[in-house]
Specification:
mainly beta, Immunoglobulin-like, four-stranded antiparallel β-sheet, three-stranded antiparallel β-sheet, about 10% helix
Length: about 100
Amino acid sequence: MAGGGGVQSTETSDLKKGIALRVQPNPAKTNVTISYAVHQLKNARLKIYDATGRLVKQYSHLTNYQSSIVWNCCDDNGTRLPNGIYFVRLESEQTDNIEKILILS
């Protein structure tokens, strides 16, 4: 194909918008690595919701513009979450990004 360029990854194009998020492995059994990048950390938050929309885990004080968090599939009380679909949401003042994850035991 003339002109080249290829397909740009979602993560790269989202980072140009100010935010990028990647969740691996997916599906997950024990630990999940949540990698993120934001242009501005002011008020950046990482929140995890269950399929009903209930907030189950949050990280409110992100310390690096680009980093990763290892999540043990437990809620804020340390209780292992049941199998199901969860949503990881990275929010900042400019925009937000959501990734779906499946937890299996």
